[in-house]
């Protein structure tokens, strides 16, 4: 599949690996793909983010992603649903971190034992890349670009899509920018 990736898409994947390495995580997840895409300044996906006004808000997106990781990757919708059942996720996170240390639910603990050092891709990152392929095929495009990765991040339910939507980036707004059907304003 990677032979079909454009140089911009490959740069996003390499950037995601670098994001995982920088935080000492063992696998690349969808958030790493999102953060790598936000750091890019070339490519159609990065340009779409810039046109939607999100390129300059990378730190806000990173903070939102980090907060979701502290909640063990639960989206705000999932957190709200649990609250409806009387489960206070913030209280649980605080208690777990009190006992096991900051970042315990995010996988930030460094005492996990031996590890070879090669980062694989987690299930959600693989799903994003597979979705990017399906989107490229559906759009009858021959290669997978960083714009397809961005579209895949917005199309899959989960924290990445939620964080992007909170900043006004949805599948429809990205498609509008890419197809030139109008500039959608990010919120």
From TrEMBL:
SUPFAM superfamilies: Double Clp-N motif (SSF81923). Keywords: Repeat. Residues 2-185 form the Clp R domain. It comes from the Bacteria. InterPro entries: Clp_N_dom_sf, Clp_R_N. The keyword Signal does not apply. Transmembrane segments: none annotated. The keyword Repeat applies. This is Peptidase. It comes from Streptomyces cyaneogriseus subsp. noncyanogenus.
């Amino acid at each position: 599949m990677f032979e079909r990736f454009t140089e911009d898409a490959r740069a996003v994947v390499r950037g995601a690996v670098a994001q995982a390495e920088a935080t000492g995580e063992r696998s690349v997840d969808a958030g790493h793909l999102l953060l790598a895409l936000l750091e890019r300044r070339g490519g159609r996906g990065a340009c779409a983010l810039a046109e939607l006004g999100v390129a300059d808000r990378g730190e806000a997106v990173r903070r939102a992603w980090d907060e979701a990781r502290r909640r063990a990757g639960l989206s705000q919708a999932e957190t709200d649903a649990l609250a409806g059942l009387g489960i206070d996720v913030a209280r649980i996170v605080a208690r777990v971190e009190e006992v096991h240390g900051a970042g315990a639910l995010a996988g930030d603990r460094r005492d996990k034992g031996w590890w070879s050092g090669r980062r694989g891709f987690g299930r959600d990152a693989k799903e994003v890349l597979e979705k990017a392929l399906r989107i490229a095929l559906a759009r009858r495009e021959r290669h997978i670009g960083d714009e397809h990765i961005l579209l895949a991040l917005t199309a899959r339910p989960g924290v990445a899509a939620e964080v992007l939507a909170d900043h006004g980036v949805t599948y429809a707004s990205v498609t509008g920018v890419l197809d030139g059907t109008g500039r959608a304003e990010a919120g």
